[in-house]
Structure formats: C-alpha cells, structure tokens
Amino acid sequence: MATSTESWGGRVPLMIAHCAGMVDLVALPVWVGALIERYGFDEPHAGGLATLFLVGAVISSLFFARLFNRLNGRVAATIGYALSAIAFAAATQTASWGGLAALHFVAGASAGCALSFTHGAIAHASNPHRLFAIVGLALGVFAILFLGATPNLINAFGGPALFAVFAVVMAVAAIASAIAFPTITARSAAGEDIVEEVAHLKPAVWFGIAGISCMALTQAMMFSFLQHIGVDRGFGAEAVTGVLIALGFVNLIPAPLAAYLETRVSPRLVLAIGPILQALIVIAITTSSSFFGYAIPALFFAAVMIFTHTFAFGVLARLDPTARALAGTPAMLMVGAAIGPILGGVMVSSFGYGSLAVAALVINAFALLLFTRLHAPARPLAAAPAR
C-alpha cells in the first residue's frame, strides 16, 4: 500500500515502528530489573546485556544511515524488525549470559537498522518537529501499556515473558512496516551530490548529535536502575510498578506539548533547560530516602528527554537537508544510551546510587555546553497539506 508521511496511512506505521525501535526508552527499568531479579545477574552483567542491545543498534544505525537514500525503506524496516523479533523469541529459550548477550546484540542491530529508516522517513516530512511529536505521543501510549502489563506477565510467567513481549512488539512493527511504510521523496534538489553534502554538514549538527548522546547516556544510566532503586529501598514491588505506570501516563504529555510550543518557545531555551532539569531529577531520585521523594521526580524523568529530543530533532532537520543525520538518530541516542546501563551497573555496584548523581552532573554540564553551539536557521518549515 502506497502511503506518505503526510497521511495517517503512512504515519501510523511510523508510530508503531518508533515505539518498537525506541523500546529501551520505555523498558529499561523493567528490563534490567528482570535480569537482576529473575535471572540472578549482578548489576554490571544485567546492564551489560542492555548495553549489548544498544551497541548493536549504534553500529547498525551508523552503517545504514549512510545508505538511507539508496535502499528501500519499507524493505529495510520490515526485515530489521522481523529479525529482531526472531532474536527476542530465541532469547526466551536460554538463561545463559553468553546466549542472551549474542541475541541482545543481534536484536539491537536489527532494530537499529529499522529505526534508522523510520527516523529518516520522519525527517523527510514537511514538518519533522510535529511528526516526531506525534510518534513521541505514540511512545507515551505504548509506555502505559508496556509498563502496566509487562511486570505482571514477568511475575506470572518468569523472566522469559519479558523477551516474549519484546518479540511481539518487534513482530507487530515488522507487519506494519511491510503493509504501509511510507514512500520517501528525497528533500535534496535534483543533481545534488548527497554524499558530498553530508560530508560537509555544519559543525552545529555534530554539536547537536553529541549533546543528545550525552543526555541519552544520563537517561539510560539512571533509568536502567530506577526500578531497582525503589525495590532496594524497601518501597515494595507493587508501589514501584505503580510509579512506572504513572510515569507512562506522564509520558503522554511532553510530545504534544512540544508540538504546541514549536513556534512559541525558543529551541535554544529548551536545549538549555533540558540537561539541567534532567541532572536535577537524577539527584533527587538517588538521594531521597522517602517514597514520594523518589516517586515524584521519577514520574518526570523520561518526559524531559522526550520533550528535549523533540525540539532537537526539529532543529537538526532544519540544519540537515539530506536527513542522513536524523536517519542516524538511533546512533546519536544509543551511542550514549549503550554506555549507560553498564556504566550505571559498575558505578552502583562500586560506589552506590549517589555516584549516578555525580555522573549526571558532569555529563549534563557537557551536554549543555554542546547545545550552546547548536543554532537553528530562521526559516519556516513548509506547511503540511490540510487533513
């Protein structure tokens, strides 16, 4: 079925594909928590498995982003998500760290390929900021369903239920991509050498990519142990699961809010506040000994990243007419996120939860410095056709 990014027929598969490819942004607390509690891995080994998924996604995204304008996006997304589904299905059949490590890497590499084409397609929309906000809202809805159902499934059926859920999510994304992944019309003018254009991307693009990677590092480092911190402090599994479900509802807010504020708030202001607020939330979560001191900042943790990244995506879409940089969004996010789980695991096991706050301060100070070098050109985006 032929669809475009300007119709809901093309947007819906992108929404589904975004949720599947960005599953780590939703699942890390449950993911790492299940690996510790159900499989008996220590923090570094549990975080290491999530890291291997993200490392696979980074390597794959770096490779396929270069090929974005040469390969068929529908075929690439379909095959990528299908292979990821197969890898996660296979993960339900083993409990060894080595076997899970190999399957996590394969699943990540496959999903990273598919997500590169998904984000490249979003970047080619007439209004990338708005479409990224739409898929971000879908991720918020997905978060509620995932965080509400998955912990209960794990309690009922054990650790393999987590990977069964991942397999289903990836399979649904593969089917949606096969049916209606949108056809992309290259934004570059005829006769332009896209490879040459990418080779001379503005330095601001690279500053933006590095800044997002830093925030993603903090996000993954803290989020991986969000559930474990609550359980470890004696708040109770049910109460912590309730926090995660409520977090999913809060995640419905940042994407539509970012879309509404697109022309009302300066991207510079958002990219300045985002890293600061994220670091402050990490400090609050890791230093509080009360349930509400833990729960209230935890509710808004992922929302800060979603809101800030939506503005960053819009800025980068303006700066990069080839969409190659945004096809590499999985790499820019996950190169930081890939380090986060294992770094967080090592720090927690060696120095305690407070070390996460110190690391967040250092990393996000650097992110803030990088974002000060990112400037969006003052040209309006083309208006989308009325629907």
Fold and architecture overview:
The chain is an all-alpha fold and 387 residues long. It is 77% helix and 0% strand. It has helices at 8-21, 23-37, 43-65, 73-91, 97-123, 128-157, 160-180, 194-199, 203-223, 226-232, 237-250, 254-260, 267-287, 291-319, 324-327, 329-337, 339-351, 354-371. Helix 1 runs antiparallel to helix 7, helix 3 (43-65) packs parallel to helix 5 (97-123) and helix 9 (203-223) runs antiparallel to helix 14. The model is unreliable at 187-199 and 376-387 (pLDDT under 50).
Structural key phrases:
single chain, 387 residues, mainly alpha, Growth Hormone, Chain: A, 18 helices, globular
Blueprint (SSEs and pairs):
Elements: H1 8-21, H2 23-37, H3 43-65, H4 73-91, H5 97-123, H6 128-157, H7 160-180, H8 194-199, H9 203-223, H10 226-232, H11 237-250, H12 254-260, H13 267-287, H14 291-319, H15 324-327, H16 329-337, H17 339-351, H18 354-371
Strand content: under 5%
Low-confidence stretches: 187-199, 376-387
Distance between the termini: 19 Å
Q: So what's the oligomer here?
A: single chain
For this structure, what is the CATH class?
Mainly Alpha
Total strand segments: 0
